[in-house]
Amino acid sequence: MDKKYEVVIGVEIHAQLKTKSKMFCSCAVAFGATPNSNVCPICLGLPGTLPTVNDNAIELAIKAGLALNCQIAELSTFARKHYFYPDLPKGYQITQYKEPLATNGFIDLNGKTIEIRRLHIEEDSGKSIHSGSESLVDFNRCGVPLIEVVTEPNIRSPEQAVQYLQTLKQILNYLDVSDCDMEKGHFRCEPNISLRPIGQTKFGIRTELKNLNSLRNVREGLEFEIKRQTKILDEGGSIIQETLFWDEQTKTTGSMRGKEESEDYRYFPEPDLPVLVIKKEKIDTIKKMLPSLPLQRKIYLVEKLNLPQNIAEIIIETKEFADYFDATVKHCPNPKLVANWLTTEVRAILNEKAITIINFKLNPQQLADLLNMLNENKITGKVAKEIFTEMLTTENTAQEIASSKGLFLIQDDDVLIKAVAEILEKNQDVVTKYKEGKTTIVGYLVGLVTKKTEGKISPQKIMEEILKRLR
Amino acid sequence: MISKELCSLSITSLREKIQNKEIKFIDVVNSVLNRIKSEEQKICGYITLFEEQAIKQAQNLDATIKDRENLHPLTGIPIAIKDNICVKDFLTTCGSKILHNFISPYDATAVARLKNAGVIIIGKTNMDEFGMGSSTETSYYGPVANPIDTVYVPGGSSGGSTAVIAYRGAIGALGTDTGGSVRLPAAFCGVVGLKPTYGRVSRYGLVAFASSLDCIGPIAKTVDDTAIILSTIAGQDEYDATSVNIPVNKLLCNPEAIKDYTIGIPKEYFAEGLDPKVAKVVERTIKELGKKCKAVKQISLPQTKYTIATYYLICTAEASSNLARYDGVKYGLRTTSQELINMYEKTREDGFGTEVKRRILLGTYGLSKGYYEEYYGTAQRVRTLIKQDFDEAFKTCNVILTPTAPTPPFKLGEKISDPLAMYLSDVFTTSPSLAGLPAISVPGIGKVNNFPVGIQIIGPAFAEECILNCASAIEKING
Question: Is residue B21 one of the residues assigned to a domain?
Fold first, then answer.
């Protein structure tokens, strides 16, 4: 990147809260339902209807606010934001404006602090579907609770923006506050970006990006904007403050609307909803019940269980995966073994089948049973993988598979002693070479014994026995 | 003679006759329907009449109800509903072309409570479009005439509800009151109309005009009857977050109770603009009441001069927001066009009347960037001061008595092209609305040109019982 300019990015996100019902009525929240099947007079904004607040949504938003280190307002208010659009049935959106639920938070990105300016609750709009000359509206999404989280312009690169979004998604996922599925539109982000000459304190003119429905789009969109703005500034031009639409196909941004056409939303306090009062005790109760967050869990894995940093990061990527790890460790006393298996064998299967740990066939107890056999040297690593593969396609337990196929290692020392004696006896020439100093040849002897015992004795044990005899 | 007919009786007298099996439910309904048939053409009080359903319902009650002792006082009573309150499966037009075909799929909470009590809904009454007017002349369905003299307006915006009560075309009615829309037409039609404390009656199903002011209120011939209707519809509702959890006692009007009352008379209400003939009736009423109550006392409500301005800034701002949903997309009128924006513009151009458009424009302006603080912000601050005026006043009196309207009824067409003159009709009714207080209009002692004069009694929040007692005392003196 051109070192002439400093990049300044702020990010605004909308995340769908994981509630059973909508923000202001009792309609179900469900993705992919038949259009206009989850609607009622209230979310359709029919004449005479009134909103009432979904307490569960408020609780989830407080959880998010606390996890983002925000101050939760004991008194906050709802407001109406006005604009005309067919998927907005009341002609206004109920949101929070002057007194948001939470303010002044931050997220730590490996030492870099991203300040959170505010977090507030609002309702989603419906969805317009344009096909040919017809436009249709689906109101199922209308009234679904959202939180909006806005950062200060603290972010200095597209990579950092992506890292912030990943971390935020991870936190919301851990809190069970939002599914944060970008493809399903559960998590939408609108970054704004400006450039300023290095050393200048005044912010440059910013543009806002829309239609970024994956983290890759976020990175590419911001990178494109940096190039576009750099070129304009280099040529002595000035940036127009506007909202730009990211085109995934052409990988360029296009103008949506300029400031001169910018709408006046005519915000005013929502008269249908009283001031939202949140008692301090309630905030404290929610605070106490917050689950441990990714960062805390990572520290635990590294410092208490002595796992390598990179392995720990993979394990905590999603709450479900980290929970699976914890549950498996409960049944298997070797966390390193569990971590290795989860991050290699299990993860390979998940990737191959394109599923998450939630849909993984084996439960933590079943996996632990297999790993315990390995941990106690009852089977070899190679055999463990064989059993693992079979467990995925049958209903048999690890124990059953190992027994029926005779895959257990022979624990009887007499068999070992006898086999070693016999091999040494038959291969006097090799023994001689060993004694002359060619110590690496011992591996050949181990191989012969393994073959003789059909791989049912651990190579480690065979090696020990041979060396004992040759001493 | 009207007085011999069942439709002229109060709810309480009809209840007695029904209990004593002197009359059948169908007799009451027929009496009301006959009256409607003879009067409605002159008055235009109804937009929709539920004739068939009402007859069926009354016959059904006659056939099924055995125990007449323990009936709800409203069972079988024909009640009219203002056409901005939703009744399931019927038109709810709000007096507007834009909702000319809107059939509500649900009942307003107040309506559901009346239905539960066994009320027979007799029809939906005419009104100023979306409640915006003081004369019931802005309805798309034509103006309503005052039954006392059809050259005159009935007052508004619940003019349909008060007119049908006045001509005996319903036994009771629901109106809605944003800045006086129940009280003013009750005064002009010589009936009783009550605006409850804001939050006392659920607004769910009341089509919003100005949400922070709108109230559903009962209208009837007698103070007792309004009390019965109010106690049936009042009480907290899970569908209205602004409804208040204060238990509703069965309201009984006791005119004797005023012997302990100090009645406050705000001096600002007896100033320029008050018709001297109206003032005379009010003074006479005060004098007569003075003999029955503990004391009459002059009080001051210093912000009175700001109420009309404050009221119109707030109600137009909220109206501009509440009426944004009528865009031709989902229900109601749609004037088609190739472009979306043109469809919006044409639909709203065709669908709304002049007064509604005027208020949407005023309200939109008052909420725009750069003007919000000056207009809406200032109005909200003055509103707080108006509330404080009342808080102060109620430290020294139990109720406040004022004229309901500054003038007697005016003629149809007289003020329709002069909105400012029209807005001044609300000069006495808007302050209790802004303060969220209960107020009732009851005919005073004496008349002006054959028209009764409405007396407004204002009480502290949730003191409906006090204003009912006081209104009942006036009614009793009137005989």
Answer: yes
**CA quadruple B349, B351, B353, B358: dihedral positive or negative?**
negative
What average pLDDT does the segment A236-256 reach?
A: 90
**Mutation target among A49, A93, A98 for the B interface, most CBs of B within 10 A:** A49
Which residues does residue A113 pair with via DSSP β-bridges, in sequence order?
A: A108
- Average per-residue pLDDT for chain B: 96
Q: Does residue A130 register a pLDDT over 80?
A: yes
Residue A344, helix vs strand vs coil: helix
- CB of B206 less than 8 A from some CB of A: yes
Answer whether A52 touches B (CB < 8 Å). Answer: yes
> Considering only alpha carbons, which residue of chain B is nearest residue A136?
B329
The amino acid at A128: S
User: H/E element holding B257?
Assistant: none
pTM of the model: 0.90
Contact B108, B87 (CB under 8 A): yes
Predicted confidence (pLDDT) per residue in B53-107, tens digit: 999 999 999 999 988 888 999 999 999 999 999 999 999 999 999 999 999 999 9
Q: Which residues pair with B194 in a beta bridge?
A: B440
Domain span at B1: 1-297+400-479
- The alpha carbon of residue A126 is apart from the nearest alpha carbon of chain B, in Å, by 13
**pLDDT for residue B16 is more than 80:** yes
What pLDDT score was predicted for residue B118?
A: 97
The ipTM estimated for the assembled molecules is 0.96
Distance CA B361, CA B24 (A): 52
Partner A contacted by B243 (CB < 8 A) = no
CATH of the domain at B430: 3.90.1300.10
> B311-341, pLDDT tens digit by residue?
999 999 999 999 999 999 999 999 999 899 9
Does B343 reside within a domain?
A: no
Comparing CA positions, the residue from A353, A297, A13, A75 lying closest to residue A175 is A297
SS3 sequence of A383-412: HHHHHHHHHHHCCCCHHHHHHHCCCCCCCC
| Residue B330, in any domain of the structure | no
Residue A73's Cα: distance from chain center in Å?
A: 28
Say which residue the tokens 């922070």 belong to.
Answer: B212
How many domains are contained in chain B? Answer: 1
B171 shares contact with chain A (CB less than 8 Å): no
Q: What are phi and psi of B443, to 5 degrees?
A: -60, 130
pLDDT over 80 (residue B250): no
The domain defined by A413-470 folds into Arc Repressor Mutant, subunit A (1.10.10)
Long-range contacts of A242-247 (CB under 8 A, 24+ apart): A242/A207, A242/A208, A243/A207, A243/A208, A243/A209, A243/A210, A244/A207, A244/A208, A244/A209, A244/A210, A245/A209, A245/A210, A245/A211, A246/A209, A246/A210, A246/A211, A246/A212, A246/A217, A246/A220, A246/A221, A247/A211
**Which of these, A64, A99, A54, lies nearest to A293 by C-alpha position?**
A64
